[in-house]
Amino acid sequence: MALRDTFALADRDTDVSTEIRAGITTFLTMSYIVVVNPSILVGLPEGAEGGPKPGIILGNYSYAETVQMVAVVTLLSAAVATLVMAVYADRPFGQAPGLGLNAFFAFTVVGALGVPWRTALAAVVVEGVVFVLLTAVGAREYIIRAFPEPVKFAVGTGIGLFLAIIGLEAMGIVVDDPSTLVTLGAVASDPVAILSVLGLFFTFMLYARGVRGAIILGILLTSAAGYALTASGVVAPSAGLTGDLSAGATYDISPLVGAFVAGFEGVDAFTFALVVFTFFFVDFFDTAGTLTGVSQAAGFLDEEGNLPDIDRPLMADAVGTTVGGMLGTSTVTTYVESATGVEEGGRTGLTALVVGLLFLVSLAFVPLAAWIPQYASHIALVVIGVVMLRNVVEVAWDDLTAAIPAGLTVLVMPFTYSISYGIAAGIVSYPVVKLAAGRADETRPGHWALAAAFVVYFVVRTGGFLAANV
Fold first, then answer.
1. Under 8 Å between Cβ of 401 and 439
2. Residue 332: in which H helix or E strand, if any?
3. Would you tell me the crossing angle of helices 311-327 and 117-136 to the nearest 10 degrees?
4. Residue 242: helix, strand or coil by DSSP?
5. What's the rounded Cα separation, in Å, for the pair 420 and 450?
6. Tens-binned pLDDT, residue by residue, of the chain (470 aa)
7. Which terms in the Gene Ontology molecular function aspect does this entry carry (predicted)?
8. Under a CB-based contact definition with an 8 Å cutoff, are residues 332 and 37 in contact?
9. DSSP 3-state helix, strand, coil percentages of the chain (rounded to 5)?
10. Residues 419 and 282: beta-carbon distance below 8 Å
11. Is-contact 417 107, C-beta < 8 A?
């Protein structure tokens, strides 16, 4: 009775059992992030097996221990954000550290820009605080108008390609080549590549059949196959089909909590501002787009296609991001997998409450994050990357003034290994092609200001004005 009254289930034509089932469904479809987020965020130093790899590196702790710490932080930040979504926003949306944003954190900010990981966390916290303030004053409409529509529509597809290439590289399916930059890996002789291909197609089959939890199931079964092949002697232990079973459970996250504070020391203001801007841009529009899409399926939108009280779920996202950065993980965002719970009938915050509680229960399985081999966890990146390609249909490709900035956004991201460069390319090109087409009246001063700012950034970044290590 208390749950029915608290979440007004009768008013939205639902009941407790339906909401619980919807929450379990949403959790299963997004639970892969518990193992994938640490595998992306945690780095490896020069000389380490599998290294170097940009990301969070704790000198006094092993890779497996750091992975478990980030897994704990992932679960806590996801639980906090989703519970705020349940209690404050009363919406059936699950939240967790976002794919794409964690890759931007590790590979672009820490890797390409050379920003220390603690400073990257500081940028996440600042982005979260800015998001909280802007949401509190209702500035959403002003922010949306400042960004070219083709770029907003293309960002998801560009991030999908970016995630896919990261995943394919980790799986040994795509490898570097001195002549062509990339080429096909030894998919018929390398055990990791062979098992990765089989695991990827198996996961695609589960996903295509609509199996709930298809991604996490594919990751677990691929990992189990790797352990079985190694234990039976079919492949040698050195083949790399297994994770680290030696590490015990690590729940002490004190090395990560508050690490962002040290990140403010010696910050290059221009680069830091760019990082904050990109985190904010991707998080804001990814969350807004996901909320709108899932809300449409749930029947939440009004006659004008807007989600009433959207500031509440946006605030849950902002709080989750701020808390996550303080704990030690990248930006939190709303998951499109929430649509699976909506399809099961989830209509209220009770669905999100179940998701948040299941994230807390999952703390008991933290060691699993270190046991999962990297190639298996990265199956999720390729699957989600392929799914995200469908976002590109929203672009008006028959209009060159939309196709050019959208196309540049999509292409530059994977080819430069940077989400921010892709966004910048789209923003710079948009007012230029509008002007060339004689349609400058369709641009706003904000478009030109953003384009000019990014031109300056490209000049500074690639002209040798910034040191190799910012």
1. yes
2. strand 332-334
3. 160
4. coil
5. 13
6. 577 777 878 777 888 989 999 999 999 889 999 999 999 999 999 888 777 899 999 988 989 899 999 999 999 999 999 999 999 999 999 999 998 889 989 998 999 888 999 999 999 999 999 999 988 887 766 676 677 888 888 888 888 898 899 889 989 999 988 889 889 999 999 999 999 999 999 999 999 998 888 898 999 999 999 999 999 999 999 888 998 776 667 789 999 999 999 999 878 888 888 889 888 877 877 787 778 767 876 788 777 666 788 889 989 999 999 999 999 999 999 998 888 888 888 899 999 999 999 999 999 888 877 788 889 989 988 998 888 888 788 889 999 999 999 999 999 988 888 777 888 899 999 999 999 999 999 998 889 988 998 888 777 667 665 444 34
7. purine nucleobase transmembrane transporter activity
8. no
9. 65, 5, 30
10. yes
11. yes
Is the pTM here over 0.70, yes or no?
A: yes
DSSP structure string for 84-109 = HIIIII-----EEEPTTHHHIIIIII
Which amino acid would we find at residue 31?
A: S
Contact of 315 with 334, CB cutoff 8 Å: no
* Residue 466 φ then ψ, to 5°: -100, 140
Chain centroid offset of residue 25 CA? 20
Domain limits, the chain: 2-391
Q: How many whole angstroms separate alpha carbon 122 and alpha carbon 127?
A: 9
Neighbours of 64 (CB within 10 A): 21
DSSP state of 175: E
For 306, the token pair is: 């807007």
CA pair distance 296, 41, nearest whole angstrom: 33
Helix (H, G, I), strand (E, B) or coil at 147: coil
Are 421 and 412 in contact by the 8 Å Cβ rule? The answer is yes
